[in-house]
Amino acid sequence: MSPMPVLPVVRLAGSQDPSSPLVVLLHGRGSDEAGILPLASVLPAGATYAALRAPISEGGGYAWFANRGIGRPVAGSLRETMDWFTAWLQGVSTGRPVVLVGFSGGAAFAGGLLLDDPGRYAGTAILYGTLPFEAGLSVEPGRLAGAKVMVAHGDTDEVMPPELMSRTWQYLTASSGAEVTAVRDPGGHGISKAVAERLGAWIAETLGL
């Protein structure tokens, strides 16, 4: 893995109004910002969509953190990239609500950001991924009290470890304290049309669009 760049690579879609709500799209491991930007085309008008490239070069794509296995971030690496992300976000989000939408590895990253600062985000969508357990972040009961979260899992997902998927689902829906919209998708490891539509409705409700 190469060192993180100083400046992030971002592609934008949706509203160009600098005061509009900001929805940050976080791609999966080994992909890039171009892979998730098309999702913005089926999400509500009225928000600015920022597809951000993960800062760690890995193979032909990019990653949000070094890991010890699928869904298991190295704590120090996750901390470094979360701090990098937070510094970028502070420069672009002044005075407007922010929603995180993460897919797969991006879901783990979004979950880490949420656990690190539960009150920072208007909403967090964790799609086809897991929370970053055992990576130096608190997952105590009630940690996410009042936070708005959407979680979507594929019943035939053969990419993510089943035990981590189950633990993520259980924590978010039963003990985190979050206001959770939970969706079971009969498909595999990919955002289905039905889940994209549900995500759009959730974003619209969360941001009042």
Structure characterization notes:
The protein is globular and about 40 Å long. The chain has one domain: Alpha/Beta hydrolase fold, catalytic domain (Rossmann fold). Helix content is 30%, strand content 22%. The chain has 209 residues and is of the alpha/beta class. The longest helix is centred in the middle third of the chain and has 18 residues, at 75-92. The protein has five helices and nine strands, in the order E-E-H-E-E-E-H-E-H-E-E-H-E-H. The chain has helices at residues 33-36, 75-92, 105-116, 162-175, 193-207, and strands at residues 10-14, 22-26, 48-52, 56-58, 61-63, 98-103, 123-127, 148-154, 179-185. It has a seven-stranded mixed beta sheet, sandwiched between helices.
Query: Count the strands?
Result: 9
Question: SS-based structural class?
Answer: alpha/beta
Shape category: globular
- Distance N to C terminus: 40 Å
Could you tell me the CATH topology label: Rossmann fold
Mean pLDDT: 93
Q: What is the number of independent domains? A: 1
In CATH, what is the homologous superfamily?
Answer: Alpha/Beta hydrolase fold, catalytic domain
Tell me the CATH architecture.
3-Layer(aba) Sandwich
**Share of β-strand residues:** 15-25%
The gyration radius over C-alpha positions equals 15 Å
Strand order of the largest sheet: 1-3-2-6-7-8-9
CATH class term: Alpha Beta
Order of helices and strands: EEHEEEHEHEEHEH
Uncertain runs are none
Total helices: the number is 5
